[in-house]
Amino acid sequence: MLRAELDRGEIDREQEDARMAALLSTGILDTPPEPSYDAIARLAAEYFLADSASIALADESRVWVKSSWGRVIRELPRRNSIFEMVLEADGPVIVSDIAQHPNFDQWFRRFKRLGIAAFASVPVRSSEGKILGVLTIYRSEPAPGMPLDSLRMLESLADLVASQLELRRLRSTLNDSLARRPRPVATVNEIWPRPVDLRRALDNGQFVLHYQPEVDLSTRRIIGLEALIRWQHPERGLIPPMDFIPLAEECGMILPIGDWGLAEACGQIQKWCQEDSDRDSLRVCVNLSARQFSREGLADHVEDLLLQSGVSSRQLGLEMTESSLIPDKGTTLEVLGSLRRLGVCLLMDDFGTGYSSLNQLHSFPFDMLKIDRSFVGRMTEGDQPLQIVRTIIELARALGMDVVAEGIETREQYRLLRQMGCRYGQGFLFARPMTAEAVTELLRLPGQVLPDLDGGEQARC
Ligand code: C2E
Ligand code: MG
Ligand code: MG
Questions:
Q1: Stretch 258-279: mean pLDDT, rounded?
Q2: Integer Cα distance of 205 and 277 in angstroms
Q3: Cβ–ligand 1 contact at 212 (below 6 Å)
Q4: pTM for the complete prediction?
Q5: Kind of pairing, strands 118-125 and 131-139?
Q6: Which of 249, 266, 268, 287 most suits a substitution to test ligand 1, by most atoms within 8 Å of the C-beta?
Q7: Which is it for strands 62-69 and 75-77: parallel, antiparallel or unpaired?
Q8: Can you tell me which atom of ligand 1 is nearest the CA of 249?
Q9: How far away, in angstroms, is 411 Cα from ligand 1 center?
Q10: Does residue 106 carry a pLDDT above 80?
């Protein structure tokens, strides 16, 4: 039994069961390493100038190394592991010289074999606070000053590991419940919209762009606008994008619809600037979907549009989600590079919702990242969601990127984001997506500054 095997104190069986249940619900133990964990391990090693770093999760008897940067280890006995030290300490463990450690004899052989002389390790905790694993950085020489400054960044990165696990758990729960849900039987007449409806809508000019302001959180100045498409249907009313964009993407209509959207947005920027030349620092961001992104000659196409409308490239932003990027990394880099050379701003949208977002972030030249609104929405629910947002902000800062928090709905979220140093934001608290005419009114406000929120729910226009 595990209890008998341990040299250290009694293990709390209830704690252990809860820990295992939390880990099993993520389904991570029996899967191969994932790129997002590699990215976190690599960032940890680079940030602390360590020789290597690893992320390990533990079952009852073994430590499963889910990623290691700089060394090859995949699985270790849990007994006398760093994981057990962290579990016992219920917090970070720092050993700056293994040779000086009281357990030196017991540990010596294993660490020596692995070329480790010093390490710092922090827990990866579930939302209930259970220690699921550890994030560890290693040095091959004793490191008297380790950790260099503080462990806060390492703890933040460990929270990011936890957030990836949480996402995994949410996804598997969602997939289970979708699989159990009875599928409605649709008759042919009920299927709406069809590709032909999208074609007609485009031909009849039924698509419209609404715009949602993005603000500087410290001044509430409007720094940009996100263009969000809607379908103004004569009988069905205003149809939100999620009801037709997936179909447009599937049937290919997204290309002509996307072209229309880009041209419309550029035309609108031009109009706003014509009215007042002080607005030429305003940027309008357009969402790009997967097919648009993988289209041959995307950068040339965007360049033509900019030339036709006479808009400067820095006034256009392109938002892409992780899923809209091409799986082939080389091609993605090429396309992003050519867009960047044009001078348009590249934004990673819905950051945090994909498994490998971190990996993408580290490798691709995005200027800004937008924290997905699901994280912002949960920020006031507890320490862990708050910590995730904090980590994303710190990470972006470390990578030289600006951050926009999406979906700010409450003053508390606004306050916390400002406190954490998030520079930009967007959400119903400031303004909902609105017509171009309504935006024109807002842009006439002195300094393009939205009124103080103390005026009440002004944002609900
Ligand atoms: P997105 O790019 O992440 O856009 C932000 C979405 O969050 C918008 O939904 C916006 O209305 C909503 N939102 C903003 N602030 C808040 C808030 O405080 N609370 C809540 N609950 N929601 C907020 P919308 O307009 O329904 O757009 C949904 C998605 O449709 C967009 O997500 C984007 O992925 C896609 N989309 C919109 N327009 C286009 C387009 O022109 N082309 C393509 N390819 N996709 C588009
Ligand atoms: Mg977007
Ligand atoms: Mg988004």
A1: 94
A2: 29
A3: yes
A4: 0.76
A5: antiparallel
A6: 287
A7: antiparallel
A8: 44
A9: 21
A10: no
pLDDT of residue 171: 72
What number of CA atoms fall less than 13 Å from residue 134's CA on the CB side?
A: 28
Q: Which ligand is nearest to the CA of 285?
A: 2
Q: How far apart are CA 166 and CA 387, in angstroms?
A: 13
Residues 6+ apart with CB under 8 A from 185: none
Ligand 3 centroid from CA 42, angstroms: 26
pLDDT band for 3, please (50, 70, 90 cuts). Answer: very low
Residue 242 CB–ligand 1 contact under 6 Å: yes
Q: Which residues contact 322 (CB under 8 A, 6 or more apart)?
A: 348, 350, 353, 354, 356, 357, 360
How far, in Å, is the centroid of ligand 1 from the Cα of 349?
A: 10
Residue 385 CB–ligand 1 contact under 6 Å: no
Q: Which ligand is nearest to the CA of 370?
A: 3
**Spacing, Cα 121 to ligand 1 middle (Å):** 39
Ligand 1 neighbour 179 (Cβ under 6 A): no
Beta carbon of 289 within 6 Å of any ligand 1 atom:
yes
Structure tokens at 219: 């001044």
Contact 317, 346 (CB under 8 A): yes
